[in-house]
Predict the 3D structure of the following.
Amino acid sequence: MIKKKESNYLLFLIYLIPISLIFSKLISEIIIVLTTGVIIYKFKIDYIKKKFQDLNLFQKNLIKYFFFFFFLIFVNKLANFSNYEDLFKSLALLRFPIFLLVSFIFLSSVNRYLFLNKIYIFILVSLILSIDIWLQFFSGKNLFGYNFDNDLKRAGSFFKDEYIAGSFLFYIFFYVGFFFNFFKKKIFIIILLLIVYISIYFSGDRQPFILLNLGLLLFFVINFLNIKKFIIKNKKVLYLIIFIPFFLIFFKAENFLIERYKLKNSIAFDHYKFHLESSIQNFQDNIFFGSGYKTWKKDCNKSDPETRKCSTHPHNFYLEILADNGLIGILFFIFIFYFLLKNFFILFFIKKKFIFEFLFFILYFFPFKPTGSFYTNFNLIMFFYTLLMIFIKMQYLNEKKI
């Protein structure tokens, strides 16, 4: 078993996983592989198998489904072999459900409460990143001297020229939201979430900002009566909170608002339309199993060698999985979405819990949004870390009979 000192180190490393993404995806990957390997080595396979059986039905099935889904991608790539690098990468996708399983077993066995008590780390990280985005937006440079991109109207912050600061804060917004009721000073958490909201806007990252607004709209509609009571009780503070972001946004950002958040031009729409058509064509050529992991670009370039509309992926999870893994892959992906949505629908609408989790999965799996590649390290690391936090919260509430 793991000694107390070793468990503290592992706990620290698990906290570092999303935070390290700010500076290096490679570091985050190394931490995942290292923590997974150490936990398996210390706990042994037999103990992990035994603890797996102790998970609730939802947790066991979700891990099984993702494991099967990624194994299906690997087998499909094996059948559509193109190179050893992509074959290895498709097999390596299995590290994510394995990490979820062993890290949850570790946190459940040693000190899950310490993990929850240190949730303030994410508040600190979100504040530092938000301050940096605001500095870069208003002054043109961040703390490290990275420039605000005036052409793209994007603030990369510590991510430099990889413009995913808004997407990162989108996840942090929900992390804090998951544990909103755990905090005593809720008004300060609301102020924090508002700061993060404005920071996502200033980052110029359209997709998370639009999705977050959609999520907040659904949240207000669902929780109208509770929110009304809270506003009446804290209306003076809330009026001030609401006034500040509007002042900041329109003081500096009127042109930014128009340029960055207006609808995309016809050229961009043409590219998305082409990606849709290319994905459907790839699907029609390989209806049941697709053409294999990360083959969309290659197949797209065959059909469009001159106009150069092809990207590395079709900018939509569903189109990417449809083209790469065919009908079998997309149906299983949709089944996982249905499984998550059904369970959290029951947890929220019947048991009155997990509203932020319910909204997160609606937004994450929303089919009509442009996305990055489903297979990117950033996307899968943040998604499975989100599942880990939800698992911990579920167990805590179950033990406390809340």
